[in-house]
Every structure is written in C-alpha cells, then in structure tokens.
Design brief:
The protein is mostly helical. It has 17 helices and no strands. The chain starts with a helix and ends with a helix. Mean pLDDT is 82; it is low at 449-458.
C-alpha cells in the first residue's frame, strides 16, 4: 500500500484531518508571513509610498498567477481522482502535461507583465512617486514568473502523493529564507521595495527546484511521462480549476476597485492603511484556505473511491476548524490590533496608525462568516462540482463585494469601505449553505438510485 493510500483510506476522519490540515495550515501561514515581512520591512524602512505601491501592484501579480493556478487546481483534482481509482498511469500523464502547460503559461504571462507594468499603473491613476516603485516591484516578479508560478502546483502534487510533511518543511524553509533576504536587501543594503520582490522570487525559485526533486528521482507515484491529454479531459481540468481562476481574477479586480475608492475618498494614506489590514488578513486567509485546500486530495480520492460518508465526515472537520480559526483571528484583531499595526507604521505617523486601527476593527467583523465561503468552495472543487464552486467563487470575490462597495461607502464614507468584506461575506455564506444543501440532497438521491440498482442486479 503506497503512502497516499495509507493516509486517505485507513486513517479515521479526525486523524486524517489533523495529519493533512495541521502541516498545511502551518506551512501556508508561514508562507504568508514572508509577504507580511515584505510589508513590515517596506513600511518601516522604505516608507508609506512604498507600502501603498506594493498594495496597488499586488492585485496585478495575483491576476498574473491566475491562469497557472487554474491548471494547478484542476489537474490536482483529476490526479487525485485517478489515484483513488488506482489509475496511476493516467495520473502521471495529467501531472506531466499540466506541469509543462503551466511553464508555458508562465512565460507568456511574464512577458506581458514586464512590458505592460507601466501602462497598467498609469491607468490606475497612481501618483508618479508611487507608480515608479510599483512598476519596479512588478517587473521583478515578471522576470521570475517561469520559475515561481509553478511552485504552488508542485506543492499540491506533493500533498496528493502523501508528502505532507515535506511540503510543510519546504514552505517553512523558503519563508525563513525570504525573511532573511528581505532583511539583507531592504534593511542592510537599503535597496528599496523592488529588492523585497527579488527576495521573494529567489526563495520561490529554490522552492520549485526542491519541490520537483522527489518526482525527478522517481520516489513518488507520479512520474514524468510522455503523452498529451484528450481535449475533453483538458476541458474538464480547466473547468474544475475555473473557480480558483475566477476567484483570483475577481478578487484582484475587487482589490483594484477598493484601492480606487480609497484613493478617491482619502488618498494614498487610506491605501496604506488598507494594505496593513490586508497583510494581517493574508495570514488568516492562508491558514483557513491552506487547511481547506489540504483536504482536497483526500476528499477527491475518497469521492473517486465512492466513500461518500467518509467525504462528508472529513468536511465537518474542515468547517469546524474554519470557524475556530476565524473566531480566534477576530479576537486578536479586536484585542491586539494596535500592536500589530505598529509593526508596519513608522514612528510618529499617528494619522496612519489611527486610520489603520479603525479599519482593522471594522474589517474584523467579516470573520464571523467569511470562512464558510472559503471552506465550501474548496469542498465543491474537490468533488468536481465546478459549477457550484465557480458561481460561489465569482459571487463571493466580485459580485457581492461590488454590490457592497456600491452601497456602503455612499452611506458610511470610509467606514463603508472597511465594512464591505463583512457584508459580502454574509451574502456569500448564504449562497454557500444553499449550494451545500442542494449537494447533500443530490447525493442522497444518487445513493438511493445506486441501492435500487444493486437490488435489481441481485
């Protein structure tokens, strides 16, 4: 019995959850910490303009990763389903083809990002001092894109093969390296905000190389093989990953809209304040998403093996953990937000500190419900319910936030911007629960028909 079979088939749902979720949540949290470290070093040692510049350009970086993420997520589900059905050869073909496809996409995206960075920032209406920093930051990512955009895919593939601890150690290692390089480039050498991007890209490049090493050595069930994929299967992979694709695109578009609103209402200081809140939120989001995403291989594997009760038992653990993590995050933001914000703000900048504190208090309300959309979107993806996942992802990252942004700021001013994520999260939670109830009803019908067919055969 290979490693992923020992994990996914024999462990109890509780032990399997802890075995998969704990390392992934830790590694995702630590990974997000190096992004937070970028913000701390840039905010403290470069300044408010640089902090605003990084926040302005980050949505564009996330959008550039969206196509690669679509292939990564969609292929991960199909690979896990094939391994669950004991079709290792088909799984290896999907792994090999999609790895090459992601590299190809990365090259195209990198070229576009490098040459279009300037026009994109001018279109956003950023001040020249902020725009010049943002362009340099974005172009560093563009140069490294072929080496770094595939890292998140290979991390998924490692976890599918049961190498959960290797994935955790790898993520922790590159995060620590990134923080060390941030300190060297930004604090010691004083090379500016672009050097923080350079530190991140160097670390991710090393992570990609080490991530593929076990596959190259032939130590895992997935191997590099020749051959393409049928158009129908490729279409299924792209469709199943489309929820994450549209989630990334929609979330990035929403960030651009929020930044534009903040610039209009209160200028670059509001953008800087929002970036501080988003840095803190990124750690929470990473932990909840990493926890939910870590169970995708196990959920897909057991669903492919027709273990329906085991699938829903695992998801109960995911939902309970998501609620607990979010409640803890809300408590920390309300009780200790001032101390966290001070890490990003230069001494003496009382106005930015005060604005950021109010933003964090109001933003924290979103944690009451935000976890439901994240956990259930991942669940629908794992079960191959691309339609549910796509609609939910699109609504929770774009439609509902845009509605909230259109309604709340005209009524509440700047406070309306800080409350937009909470209002959007509430609407997304209602939709997610509705889809879950529909899925449960359909699965019960399917089980009833399957039992009836068995009786006819006997």
């Amino acid at each position: 019995m290979v490693q992923q079979e020992k994990l996914f088939e024999t462990l109890s749902p509780g032990r399997l959850f802890l075995r998969c979720a704990a390392p992934s949540a830790i590694s995702m949290a630590v990974t997000s910490l190096y992004t937070v470290a970028d913000g701390i070093f840039v905010g403290q040692f470069v300044g408010e303009d640089a902090l605003a510049a990084v926040n302005l350009v980050m949505p564009l970086i996330l959008m550039s990763f969206a196509l690669a993420d679509m292939v990564a997520v969609g292929s991960s589900v199909q690979i896990a389903l094939r391994l669950g059905a004991k079709e290792a050869g088909a799984a290896s073909r999907i792994f090999s083809f999609c790895s090459g496809l992601i590299v190809l996409i990365s090259c195209v995206v990198g070229m576009a990002g490098y040459f279009l960075a300037g026009p994109a920032l001018r279109l956003m209406g950023a001040q020249p001092s902020v725009a010049s920093i943002a362009v340099e930051y974005l172009q560093v990512y563009a140069v490294f894109s072929p080496a770094i955009m595939i890292f998140f895919a290979v991390d998924n593939y490692l976890r599918i093969c049961g190498r959960v601890r290797y994935s955790m150690v790898l993520n922790v290692m590159i995060s620590i390296l990134n923080i060390a390089l941030d300190f060297l480039f930004v604090v010691i050498l004083k090379k500016g905000a672009a050097s923080a991007a350079f530190a991140s890209c160097l670390s991710l490049t090393l992570g990609t190389a080490l991530g593929f090493l076990p596959f190259i050595r032939g130590k895992l069930p997935l191997r590099f093989v020749k051959g393409g994929l049928p158009p129908r299967l490729l279409g299924n992979i792209l469709a199943n990953g489309s929820s994450e694709f549209f989630s990334n695109i929609a979330g990035s578009v929403m960030m651009l809209a929020l930044n534009g609103t903040l610039l209009r209402i209160s200028g670059s200081m509001a953008v800087a304040a929002f970036s501080i809140v988003m840095y803190v939120d990124s750690v929470v989001d990473a932990m909840v998403f990493g926890m939910a995403d870590s169970l995708q291989p196990a959920l897909s594997y057991n669903y492919g093996a027709k273990q329906r009760k085991r699938v829903f038992a695992l998801e109960k653990w995911v939902l309970a953990a998501g609620a607990a993590m979010s409640a803890a995050a809300m408590a920390v933001m309300l009780a200790g937000g001032e101390g966290v914000i001070a890490l990003f703000v230069q001494k003496g900048d009382a106005a930015l500190l005060e604005m950021s504190e109010r933003a964090m208090r109001l933003f924290s309300v979103c944690y009451l419900v935000k976890w439901l959309g994240t956990c259930l979107s991942s669940f629908f993806t794992a079960l191959g319910r691309a339609g549910y996942s796509l609609v939910l992802a699109f609504c929770r990252t774009l439609v509902f936030p845009l509605i909230s942004l259109g309604v709340l700021p005209p009524l509440l001013g700047l406070d309306g911007v800080w409350l937009t994520p909470a209002a959007a999260g509430m609407l997304a939670a209602v939709l997610a629960v509705a889809f879950l109830l529909l899925l449960v009803r359909n699965e019960k019908k399917r089980s009833a028909f399957a039992g009836f067919d068995e009786k006819l055969k006997s």
